[in-house]
Amino acid sequence: MSAGEQIPPWLQEQVGRMQQLQQNLQSIMMQKQHLESEHLETERALELLKKANDEDVVYKTAGSILVKSTKTNLITELEEKKELANTRLTVLSKQETRIKENLKEAETKIREMLRGPASQSGPAKTDTPK
Predict the structure, then answer these.
(1) Most buried of 25, 90, 113, 116 (most Cβ within 10 A)?
(2) How many domains does the chain have?
């Protein structure tokens, strides 16, 4: 395309769709990274808590304050948090995979659309020779 030509609407639509998919992918990857970090932090806290004696005083955070709790309650809460994080990571991974597949399809479609008119004007198909 020369500089004077405008991008056809169908191509603008496909490029816009592809950009939206890229933004969605970036958002999912950021969420996934944050969740993985949170998951590791929860695992470390669980390890330390399990090493503590049952008589040790333990606290949990509630906003910007610490609240006294029991080792058993904290272990239960952290294991639930870890399980929830695992579930969310699984969902995000599936979304990431689906968006990557959609991106590949969009790229292929754009390439085909750009090549389309040239390849369609080629020689007509002929049936078997007589």
Answers:
(1) 25
(2) 1
Q: Which residues lie closer than 8 Å to 29 by C-beta, 6 or more apart?
A: 96
Domain of 101: which CATH number? 1.10.287.370
Give this prediction's pTM.
0.73
Q: DSSP state, 64? A: T
Q: CA 106 from chain center: how many Å?
A: 17
* Residue 103 forms part of a structural domain: yes
pLDDT average, residue stretch 21-30: 97
Residue 3 lies in a domain: no
How many other β-carbons are positioned within 10 Å of the β-carbon of residue 99?
A: 20
Band (123; pLDDT cuts 50, 70, 90): very low
Q: How far is CA 85 from CA 10, 46, 120, in A?
A: 40, 14, 50
